[in-house]
Amino acid sequence: MTSLAEKLSTRGLRVPEQEPIILDRKRIYIIPTWYGVLFSMTLFIMLIGSINFNNSLSFALTFLMVSVTLVSMLHAHRNLSKIHIRCATTKSVFSGQHAIFPMLISNPGGTDKQTISLVIKNEIPVDIDVPAGSTVTAQLSMKTMVRGIVQPGKIKIFTEFPLGLFHAWSWFYPDIKCIVYPAPEKDAPPPDFQSDGDNNAGLTAKGQDDFSGLRNYQPGDSIKSIAWKQSARGDTLYTKQFSGGGGRTLWLEWDIAEAGSNEQRLSRICRWVLDCEASGIKYGLRLPDNKILPGSGRKHQHICLTALALFGRES
Amino acid sequence: MLWILACQAMVIAPHLLRIPVWLSIMSAGVGIWGYKAVSAKWKYPRRIILLLMVIIASTGIFINYGTLIGRNAGVALLITMLSLKILEFKTHKDVILFVYLGYFLVVTNFLFSQTMLIAIYMLAVSIGLTSTLIMLSRHGSELNLGKNVKQAVMMTLQAIPLMLVMFVLFPRLPSPLWFLPEDNSRAVTGLSDTMKPGAISELSRSDAVAFRVSFSDAIPPASQLYWRGPVLWQYDGKTWHTSYQKFLKRNMQGKYSGKKYTYTITLEPHQQYWLFALDTPSSIPPDSYINNGYSLISRNRIRNLYQYTSSSYTRYIIGDKLSLAEKKSALQLPENLNPKTGKWAREINRRFATAEEKAKYILGYFREKPFSYTLSPPLLGQNAVDDFLFNTRSGFCEHYASSFVYLMRLMNVPARIVLGYQGGEYNNLGKYMIVRQSDAHAWAEIWVRGKGWIRIDPTGAVSPDRVEKSIEAALPFRVSSGGLMRSDNPVLRTLILYWDSANYKWHNWVLGYDSAKQSSLLEKFGINSASWEDIAISIMVSLGSMLLLIALWVNMSNRRPRKDPTCRLYLKFCQKLGRIGFRQMAHEGPIDYATRVTGKRLDLKDEVDLITHIYIKLRYSRNPPTNLFSQYKKCIRKFHPRKNK
Fold this sequence. Notes:
A: alpha+beta; 7 helices; B: 4 domains; five-stranded antiparallel β-sheet
């Protein structure tokens, strides 16, 4: 039954929707919960009792509860209707971690939306309250298994508020994705360097030892190399420059990462990228289908890791 | 948790006096245990202990009531279950079931009492239960009690119109689906179908309402207000019984003349079959019969408030042909009792020829000898009539009626005793008459050839005030048990009448709403032959439209909250700019927006800057000048940007 209901309620959702996604009454569905069924059975027994004793107040109370049930249906529906959903940007994660999809749920209406749950299929629901006229971020998480791009697909938003007797829900298909880097290999051997210049250099980043001077901060510089002390004196950021590593560049190559499968290779290279970045060495990437010129900093790291994540997946 | 327990306590509270003491103590104890289990981490009992408790409690209930089904035992059982459920609060589900059971128990309360106060109280309880459900459907453990209750009240208010529609339109059955075992243990004040000395005087101390009457036009004088109940034929020397009764065919009614009174009686449940009518009813309400004592007998026991309409005439001839069996039972007498009375009766019998003359003589005797009318008569011996007539000479209506009928029978005049009520208090506020248990009365009827049964009230001979006014006037001194109803304080008296009048309306329109009322109400709306289909359709239609209205209401409150006028005007301004291609972006504040617009459209700079400036001033400065708003309004109204070519 659930799958049938799901099929019916998700029809028409074949492609990701444009933002903002607005939940209107055409896409909100509602059925009684099992509690609702149980409660109506209780009400039915109450009604039989009232008929038998011909007791006016029992009738009145039974009908009141029936009406409250009906009203609760309207309230459950209202609790979802006119919700606006937008997606925020996602942060890339390593395979095996949880991808977080932040959804901005705003309530432009005049009543609070209470106890709303959002759920990606097979994941744990996230519960939120959205007071009237405000926006709340729901952090939907999804366990990642493989590198590449993950998308949550269709997301169900539902509520059983206020009485738990009705389950109102709606599906939406946000245009949101998260890049999943390969999982970095543990205890990976250092790369067999084919670096320009020094031959037997390890990853012991010598470059950081010989401080040679300061220059103005440029976006992309590693946070670790910022000269905080000096920067604090003025209002410009300075980056430390090192004589040793300054000219040093590592080429992280597909061929030198000698591991069994492609995935293991990617894992290893991922580890190297992280290590290089940590030690402040400039590094470049050479993959069979892609080449990234040496550089360093967060942005560079992201570009490299994305290239690893999407290796062989582009098409 | 405490809230849930409080709800349970509220639900059970009205039952507490009705259930056995041990059960009340048990449920209180279990409540405390349940609370401690949550707050102080007490252990929940094992399943086996719970089962044992259920068995013990059920056995106790069985011993107490002799059954497990039926109303009282059922409620007791339900309370047991509800209390023990507390010790099983492990999952969400348990708590929800507990609340559902609570609703059920609320309904059972109405089987015992249906007063306005109980109704209001129970409404509050059900709102409490609803807010518990709201609390349970919220995630997290936060307890915003106020919010929950507010929502519950809101939902209940929205539900009330729907409830009214269902209440009015839902078809009512004239008789129950099945009968549950009787609960005999309940004592109800009211007339019984026997009469022994002291029975009615006992009843006279009660202020309880027996029934209420509304007359469709004229109100009969007080001396005509004889409300006929059961008729007693058989006397065993001490107690009078109904024993002999035969139902009459509908066409075997009497001959009626004189003024006709039509009235509607709302009878309080008295757990008996008979109905009351103004003396002899000339029309028989549905679902009832008339017997040869001209008492109305209902088909069903009166367990709930019962309403019926009947009519009576001031003059009538009933039972002008006396059957042999009737004559025999109307002359039945216990043997070898009251020798003195027997001697006296023979004497009267010799002196007077007709029954009426004999009756007149006896009434005269009551009037002339020092007979007195008292609520606390002395006890009578074996020969009760002898004792009363020649010895104590003080008594209540039952003594007079009893000895009068006894005398008449001795003189071979068929006679019988009628039980009922005499008088009633007119409530001017509600335009109806209240007849209380204290108006209980007994009088006599003798049979005269050609005239049928004639009413004779011997009490009237002794104490005319009893008939003309009321029992208060008739009694020589105030009775200690009089209570509120006989208060002399006029303000209090008016308040009491107000209260009773509200109660009457309540009884009439809420509690007494039955199949007859329903069809007459539907007739007013033009639904004449209310068939099941018609009712089903009208329920559907009205429920649907009601639901639609409520849906509108619910959604109305979902609309954008009203913005202040400054803001609204600014939005208008933005709309005007939007039309020429400058829509305000979500990230843009008013200044950024204005800069962007004026950067592209130098020709609008003055106006846009001015409006933005005033807007900011109006919204954000502490005390904007009062005339600024009107200027702002004018500016925006005059602002008509045109598209650039």
